[in-house]
């Protein structure tokens, strides 16, 4: 196991790695759950009288989401309810001076760590530990707080190198994400385990299904994933989604694994029995529900019989894990599958985890209460890793840090 904030003595100089990576549109950073979640860790550190430097990333070089953390500092300040100063430097003189000037109960936000050359290469922790970034920052602090669970699948310098050179602790986000997301791979459930397997990232979802095939009793199929499974059993309802041949390429990439799952686990796969469509480009057009045998339309959601069946299964399950939406819920007309089934999961007293950026967004979009679920994850790639039972380097290094000092 790892040390948590409960093990950290008050009044230290602390470097906390957060994941505030966010959607950015025309240069404007969107406020989202990552800020409100990490604010809890930051507030606790400030209340405990620590001097806190925050380290985070945004985007990747070459993308238009690759921006400084100035807006992140402002948004986070609002969530924390204290001023967090933005420092336009990661580990140069300006950063070191700002760290030295920290007072108890104060926090600063260092510059986007992906703007340094040392951060992004995928390397082993021991390699990263030798980098200038790690060797310069580590001696400035008493402790490292790893809170960036959603980046824990990356072997980056600030994720695996820094904690190797410092006393490392898991932050509140790290602990809650790790425990909930790993439950399906690590925990025994007495009753039925159900997974909503939807969305448009078919390869990820089919990876998860393949590794969990013997642990899950019901895979509720929807979204593009559902269309691919329907196609494999003879109902070619797949529509050509925006990115021209994304549907076709996902079919080609995954059809063999889909057929294997159909052969080996026929009774665990729950197909949509009806689908909903309308003229996507005409807002006033009515939504029609048709049997899956009708293949003349571009389907955008599961139908009402399917919603009822999926909701019933969720209601009698002991655990439900959600990966991917059942329809194109961003358009309210096609939100029925995703929203109604999520509501049924929320109403039931099962252990429930909802992950993946898009699906989690549906919870607020359709006015559901996050507290109705056991956990709403803020992770994307790391959630997939956890579901497939792969270990996360950023978590392993925190565990290793305990063993090294005992
Ligand atoms: C995320 O947003 O999922 C994490 O911050 C990881 O980002 P990356 O995929 O650019 O490494």
TrEMBL record:
What top-tier enzyme class does this entry carry?
transferase
The record's SUPFAM superfamilies line, in alphabetical order, gives: Phosphoglycerate kinase (SSF53748)
Q: What is its EC number?
A: 2.7.2.3
Which residues are listed for ATP binding in this entry?
330, 356-359
Known InterPro entries for this protein?
Answer: Phosphoglycerate_kinase, Phosphoglycerate_kinase_N, Phosphoglycerate_kinase_sf
> Can you supply one Gene Ontology CC term for this chain's record?
cytosol
Q: In which pathway does it act?
A: Carbohydrate degradation; glycolysis; pyruvate from D-glyceraldehyde 3-phosphate: step 2/5
**Its Gene Ontology biological processes?**
gluconeogenesis; glycolytic process
Task: Cite the Pfam families for this sequence.
Answer: PGK (PF00162)
Q: Which residues bind substrate?
A: 19-21, 34, 57-60, 114, 154
Which locations, inside or outside the cell, does it occupy? Answer: Cytoplasm
Organism domain of life: Archaea
- Chain sites annotated for binding (2R)-3-phosphoglycerate: 34, 114, 154
Show the GO MF annotations.
ADP binding; ATP binding; phosphoglycerate kinase activity
Which reaction is recorded as catalysed by this protein?
A: (2R)-3-phosphoglycerate + ATP = (2R)-3-phospho-glyceroyl phosphate + ADP
Keywords on this record? ATP-binding, Cytoplasm, Glycolysis, Kinase, Nucleotide-binding, Transferase
Q: According to its UniProt record, which protein family does this protein belong to? A: Belongs to the phosphoglycerate kinase family.
Q: Can you state the subunit structure given in the record?
A: Monomer.
The UniProt entry, under HAMAP family, shows:
Phosphoglyc_kinase
PANTHER family found in the cross-reference section: PHOSPHOGLYCERATE KINASE (PTHR11406), PHOSPHOGLYCERATE KINASE 1, CHLOROPLASTIC-RELATED (PTHR11406:SF23)
State what protein this is by name.
Phosphoglycerate kinase
Phylogenetic lineage? Archaea, Methanobacteriati, Methanobacteriota, Stenosarchaea group, Halobacteria
Q: Which gene encodes it?
A: pgk
């Amino acid at each position: 196991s790892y040390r948590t904030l409960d093990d950290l003595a008050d009044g230290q100089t602390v470097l906390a790695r957060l994941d505030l990576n966010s959607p950015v549109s025309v240069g404007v950073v969107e406020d989202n759950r990552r800020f409100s979640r990490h604010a809890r860790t930051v507030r606790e550190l400030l209340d405990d009288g620590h001097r806190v430097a925050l380290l985070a990333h945004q985007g990747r070089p070459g993308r238009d989401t690759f921006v400084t953390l100035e807006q992140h500092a402002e948004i986070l300040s609002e969530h924390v309810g204290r001023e967090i100063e933005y420092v336009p430097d990661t580990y140069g003189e300006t950063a070191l001076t700002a760290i030295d000037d920290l007072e108890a109960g104060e926090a600063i936000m260092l510059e986007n760590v992906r703007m340094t050359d040392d951060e992004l290469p995928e390397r082993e922790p021991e390699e990263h530990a030798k980098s200038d970034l790690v060797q310069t920052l580590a001696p400035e602090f008493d402790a490292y707080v790893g809170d960036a669970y959603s980046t824990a699948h990356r072997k980056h310098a600030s994720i695996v190198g820094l904690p190797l050179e410092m006393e490392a602790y898991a932050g509140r986000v790290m602990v809650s994400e790790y425990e909930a997301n790993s439950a399906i791979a690590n925990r025994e459930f007495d009753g039925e385990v159900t997974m909503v397997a939807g969305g448009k990232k078919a390869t990820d979802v089919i990876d998860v299904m393949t590794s969990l095939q013997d642990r899950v009793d019901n895979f509720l199929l929807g979204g593009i994933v559902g269309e691919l499974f329907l196609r494999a059993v003879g109902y070619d309802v797949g529509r050509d989604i925006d990115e021209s041949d994304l549907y076709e390429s996902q079919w080609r990439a995954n059809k063999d694994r889909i057929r294997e799952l159909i052969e080996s686990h026929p009774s665990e796969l729950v197909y949509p029995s009806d689908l909903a469509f309308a003229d996507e480009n005409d807002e006033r057009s009515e939504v029609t529900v048709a049997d899956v045998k009708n293949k003349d339309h571009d389907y955008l959601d599961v139908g009402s019989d399917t919603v009822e069946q999926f909701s019933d299964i969720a209601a009698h399950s002991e655990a439900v894990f959600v990966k991917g939406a059942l329809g194109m819920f961003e358009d309210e007309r096609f939100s029925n599958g995703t929203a109604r089934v999520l509501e049924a999961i929320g109403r039931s007293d099962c252990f429930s985890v909802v992950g993946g950026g898009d699906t989690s967004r549906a919870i607020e979009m359709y006015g559901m209460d996050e507290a109705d679920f056991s956990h709403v994850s803020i992770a994307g790639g790391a959630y997939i890793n956890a579901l497939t039972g792969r270990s996360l380097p950023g978590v392993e290094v925190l565990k290793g840090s305990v063993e090294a000092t005992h």
